[in-house]
Fold:
Amino acid sequence: MSILTVEKGLSADVIRTLSAHKKEPKWMLDMRLKAFNYFIKQPTPKWGNTELLEDIDFEDICYFNVVGKNEDNWDNVSDTVKDTFEELGIPEAEQKWLGGVTAQYDSESIYHSIRADLVEQGVIFMDMDTGLREHPEIVKKYFGKIIPHTDNKFSALNTAFWSGGSFIYVPKGIKVEIPVQAYFFISSENMGQFERTLIVADEGSSVHYIEGCSAPTYSSQSLHSAVVELVAHKDAHIRYTTIQNWADNVYNLVTKRAIAHENACVEWVDGNIGSALTMKYPSVILKGEGAHAEIISVAYAKGKQHQDTGAKVIHLARNTTSNILSKSISKDGGRTSYRGLVKVSKKATGCKSNVVCDALMLDETSRSDTYPTMEVSNSNSIIEHEASVSKVSDEQLFYLMSRGHNEGEAKSLIINGFFEPFTNKLPMDYAVELNHLLEMEMTGSIG
Structure:
């Protein structure tokens, strides 16, 4: 079914092959090769779950696999790919309440559409490869400026091998009232997926972008290493929602960062279910006075899974504000970690930040850790942090069961209530689907 598949393993030749296939400008190929050289020289990070990170065999990964060309008519998509996305409900969601959708299968988008009224308003929403071809001046202005390849080992890996992802530009003053969505699916064993997403909201504009992620389970590992860059200009508003449900053989190592200018607002709404290891810390740099960051994340880990997630906010300007809410559940020996940073510069007076971390452990073998870092360089800011760890109590179960619920229903109600601050941010269809996923994951849990 594949149009182009490269051999497994790291090499500059793979980069040249995929860049030639995409007919990229020379500056992009040069950036890729520079990032590749940086990646090769960098050691594996010595923090987080180093044991799992060291298990990654980069030579046993396929870095580029294209299964079909990008279509704008669903009927033209191959039956195999179509069946996958129809099972995930993508076409139905597009018809009911989405302003646009991109579906990526392994390395490239295989379907894309956007509503005509958004196009008429000047909204650009397309896969990243098409964005580079059709809007090179915008891409070159922002690509790699918020997250350079030197940021970390995995941002370098993504910059070297990136393929697919989403490119969005919202013109000045345009409010995109309905969400747009991208869905990323890894279909192959030992596959590496390296999508690159860039969203630019011009002055006074707004957009809500939703991404979903999943993969079938194989006996060997797959690697997902994405980079997401957001730019919210003056008075702009970006909400970026993620619901990932990776199989437990996927290593999910993602770098996400936004810059918020004067009075802009950036929201990360981040849901993490599945994967062998997730390391992801959505961040916002509050560059303009009055800018605001809102980060809500939930994580669920069971068995050998480790969700190492959190948030970072850098207050660079005066009177900036941020709220971070982290919720996690660990079960059957699963491990969740909150790893966060709030940094306030010397000149950023009048700032306010509130961090809340709540963990729920469902048995004695599970684990939850909190690693907060706060660096405040002035005495005229208010920074708050609170953390709690709890379990599903016998009293809670008894009360709900006395009201006519069986034990399984009672547990599901408690879990859904625990995650409610997250699901309240989701469109109704997504909230229902997330609750359904959690109910399935909770089967057989111990109170």
In short: The first strand starts at residue 4 and ends at 5. The chain has a mean pLDDT of 87. The longest helix spans residues 26-41. The CA atoms of residues 227 and 255 lie 5 Å apart.
